């Protein structure tokens, strides 16, 4: 052990002495043996100048210390942030730490805001879906000397007006486009037809289809027919769907997958399973309209909503056999179907499968789970699922709170219903008709008709339009209490939504 310590002592690091030229000064020996820190080494003498860099050799001599001034203070090397400030009476002018900072700040303060162009303003209004201001800016655009009618501008405006429920303005804009010399195209005609179809004006849309047929350069295509077929399906005019298919066949236009999915969904909504099977068989035999994941979701949703879990699972395996892989929405459909049948073990298995394959749990995933526990009135699991939803950063939506309100109402915890309504207000959740219907139903279960009427008045004050479900909830409550006068008032208020069979005068 002693030998090891001695060896370590002899082999320890010793800094080399800086050997300078011999000096006649008596302090030269002490200078040679001193180990200076970085930046503290004195300036070289004339004897060692050749061994140093030119930059160091040209460094100016140290400024002499004034009388009465501390010599150590002049040589001290301050650390970052330790240097003393300049006294107020020193008379020295402080320099800006960054060059031209004041000049840049002054220039920024005096700069005027950049005024966007008219075309940029129009694009912003369209993106914001503000059709009134978009039309005003478009009028300003037409007054500019560089204005030239473009198909793209009219297309965006037509789509905006159609989505905003302004079909007549869309027609006026289309006529204005023709008057300005802009030639119509199948895409522009289809946008105009879509504007009328979105607002239930199918007969007017069909007249535009006839105009397209008479125009050699604007013949309808598969997108035009898909738009019209969707309008027919939405209004349950399935006889028109067959005529559209025949018209497409006469023009050698093959329906695509989107077209078939629209019809498939429509038949499923009204329960025409035989027609659904025909459409699906045609898709399997076709080369232009092969089934996709949307087809898979439509079929699974149909059987899941009907509670036919075995058929849903059977079709799920069939679509997997066709090479169609599920997506997040597909697995959410399975979770919702299992939850309605209270098959919690299978519901948990699907959720674990999503985690394993890195499918994200979405708001719809948690909504399906909360809805399953809400129907069973399982308040404990409702709260646990909702807390986990918020812990994972999922933002609850209107359906989330509808399920929460229904669940706590079924569990008889009406104080939690009030808490959920207040929480929805704090989170700025849109309180639409479905939300108010859930609150009204909770009031009926709590047998609190005064609160029910107050919610109904609030609903009308904020211009939330009641639907058939709203009046059905109110009628059920009034009929249970024998309030025929209230039922009569509701019938007078909206005779189209209140059945006369409930009115007993």
CATH superfamily of the domain at 117-220: Tetratricopeptide repeat domain
Main β sheet profile: none
Mind telling me which CATH architecture of the domain at 117-220 this is? Alpha Horseshoe
Estimated share of beta-strand residues = under 5%
CATH topology of the domain at 117-220: Serine Threonine Protein Phosphatase 5, Tetratricopeptide repeat
Strand-and-helix sequence, N→C? Answer: HHHHHHHHHHHHHHHHHHHHHHHHHHH
Assign the structural class, choosing from mainly alpha, mainly beta, alpha/beta, alpha+beta, or little secondary structure.
Answer: mainly alpha
Number of strands: 0
Uncertain stretches: 1-32, 45-58
Descriptive terms for the model:
Serine Threonine Protein Phosphatase 5, Tetratricopeptide repeat; 505 residues; 0% strand; 27 helices; 63% helix; disordered N terminus; mainly alpha; globular
What do you see in this structure?
This protein is an all-alpha fold. Among the domains are: 117-220, Serine Threonine Protein Phosphatase 5, Tetratricopeptide repeat (Alpha Horseshoe), CATH 1.25.40; 291-360, no CATH class. It is built from 27 helices and no strands. The chain has helices at 2-10, 28-33, 54-57, 71-75, 101-110, 118-127, 131-142, 151-163, 167-179, 186-198, 202-214, 222-234, 238-250, 257-270, 273-285, 293-305, 309-321, 328-340, 344-356, 363-376, 379-391, 398-410, 414-426, 433-445, 449-461, 468-481, 484-493. The longest helix has 14 residues, at 257-270. Residues 1-32 and 45-58 have low confidence and may be disordered.
């Amino acid at each position: 052990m002693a030998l090891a310590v001695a060896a370590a002592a002899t082999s320890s690091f010793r800094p080399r002495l800086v050997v300078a030229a011999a000096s006649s000064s008596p302090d030269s020996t002490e200078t040679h043996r001193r180990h200076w820190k970085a930046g503290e080494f004195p300036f070289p003498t004339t004897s060692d100048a050749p061994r140093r860099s030119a930059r160091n050799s040209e460094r100016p001599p140290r400024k002499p210390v004034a009388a009465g001034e501390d010599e150590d203070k002049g040589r001290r090397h301050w650390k970052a942030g330790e240097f003393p400030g300049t006294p107020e009476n020193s008379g020295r002018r402080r320099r800006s730490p960054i060059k031209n900072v004041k000049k840049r700040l002054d220039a920024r303060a005096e700069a005027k805001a950049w005024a966007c162009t008219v075309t940029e303003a129009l694009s912003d209004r369209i993106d914001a879906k503000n059709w009134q201001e978009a039309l005003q800016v478009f009028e300003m655009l037409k007054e500019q000397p560089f204005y030239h009618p473009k198909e793209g501008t009219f297309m965006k405006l037509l789509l905006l007006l159609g989505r905003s429920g302004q079909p007549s303005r869309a027609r006026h804009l289309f006529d204005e486009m023709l008057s300005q010399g802009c030639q119509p195209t199948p895409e522009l005609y289809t946008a105009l037809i879509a504007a009328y179809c979105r607002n239930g004006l199918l007969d007017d849309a069909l007249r535009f289809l006839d105009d397209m047929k008479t125009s050699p350069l604007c013949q309808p295509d598969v997108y035009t027919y898909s738009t019209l077929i969707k309008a027919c399906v939405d209004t349950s005019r399935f006889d028109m769907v067959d005529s559209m298919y025949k018209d497409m066949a006469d023009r050698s236009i093959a329906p695509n997958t989107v077209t078939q999915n629209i019809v498939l969904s429509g038949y499923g909504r009204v329960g025409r399973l035989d027609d659904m099977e025909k459409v699906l068989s045609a898709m399997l035999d076709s080369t232009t309209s092969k089934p996709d994941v949307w087809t898979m979701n439509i079929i699974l949703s149909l059987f899941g909503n009907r509670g036919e879990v075995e058929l849903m699972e059977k079709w799920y395996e069939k679509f997997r056999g066709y090479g169609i892989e599920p997506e997040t929405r597909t697995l959410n459909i399975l979770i919702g179907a299992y939850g309605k049948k209270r098959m919690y073990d299978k519901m948990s298995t699907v959720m674990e499968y999503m985690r394993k394959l890195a499918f994200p749990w979405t708001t719809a995933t948690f909504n399906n789970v909360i809805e399953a526990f809400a129907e069973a009135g399982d308040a404990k699991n409702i709260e646990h699922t909702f807390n986990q939803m918020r812990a994972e950063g999922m933002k609850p939506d209107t359906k989330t709170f509808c399920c929460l309100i229904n669940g706590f109402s079924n569990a008889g915890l009406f104080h939690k219903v009030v808490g959920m309504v207040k929480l929805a207000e704090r989170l700025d959740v849109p309180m639409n008709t479905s939300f108010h219907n859930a609150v009204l139903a909770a009031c009926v279960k709590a047998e609190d008709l005064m609160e029910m009427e107050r919610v109904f008045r609030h609903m009308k004050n904020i211009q939330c339009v009641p639907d058939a479900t709203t009046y059905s909830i109110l009628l059920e409550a009034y009929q249970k209490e024998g309030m025929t006068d209230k039922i009569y008032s509701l019938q007078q208020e909206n005779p189209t939504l209140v059945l006369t069979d409930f009115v007993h005068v």
